[in-house]
């Protein structure tokens, strides 16, 4: 049984859109790790995840939830961990997409094996990240975010998703 098949991916209006994206991300990540898709397809999905999914979490869900987390818990560690993983994935991804480094007079370019290795790093982080969100952060959202706020966040996520998805698809066609 795959990791994706072992997870629930069900939540309230405040998290369902993001959970649906998690389901897809875990499938793509497992396919990459099982050599069913190549690095190019995997990195295209990660680019989408960074530009769309992470943006939805960083700009809408986390700011809406943070005050409620502070109210019920005296620490924000779940948010710091999630935000840190977003930064790690972005950093590794940017390193892959800007592989030309100049050391003195020597031009160093990442090999295909190095790119695949960095893709593997991203894949491992992404699987852990989804697990932490599904079983940690999102469960806290379900528990502590009041129902009217869940509906507001869900509506805002849906509207922003449409915009980000359209922008991404327009940019990727250029």
TrEMBL record:
<feature type="domain" description="Hemerythrin-like">
    <location>
        <begin position="17"/>
        <end position="140"/>
    </location>
</feature>
<dbReference type="InterPro" id="IPR012312">
    <property type="entry name" value="Hemerythrin-like"/>
</dbReference>
<protein>
    <submittedName>
        <fullName>Hemerythrin HHE cation binding domain containing protein</fullName>
    </submittedName>
</protein>
<dbReference type="Pfam" id="PF01814">
    <property type="entry name" value="Hemerythrin"/>
</dbReference>
């Amino acid at each position: 049984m795959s990791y994706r098949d072992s997870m629930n991916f069900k939540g309230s209006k405040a998290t369902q859109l993001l959970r649906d994206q998690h389901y897809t991300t875990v499938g793509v990540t497992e396919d990459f790790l099982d050599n069913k898709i190549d690095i190019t397809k995997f990195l295209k999905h990660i680019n989408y995840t960074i530009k769309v999914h992470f943006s939805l979490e960083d700009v809408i869900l986390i700011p809406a939830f943070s005050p409620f987390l502070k109210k019920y818990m005296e620490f924000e560690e779940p948010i710091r961990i999630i935000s840190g993983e977003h930064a790690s994935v972005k950093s590794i991804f940017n390193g892959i997409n800007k592989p030309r480094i100049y050391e003195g007079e020597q031009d160093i370019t990442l090999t295909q094996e190095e790119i695949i290795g960095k893709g593997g790093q991203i894949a491992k982080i992404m699987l852990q990240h989804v697990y932490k969100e599904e079983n940690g952060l999102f469960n806290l959202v379900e528990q502590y975010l009041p129902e009217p706020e869940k509906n507001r966040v869900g509506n805002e996520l849906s509207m922003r998703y449409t915009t980000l998805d359209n922008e991404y698809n327009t940019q990727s066609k250029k």
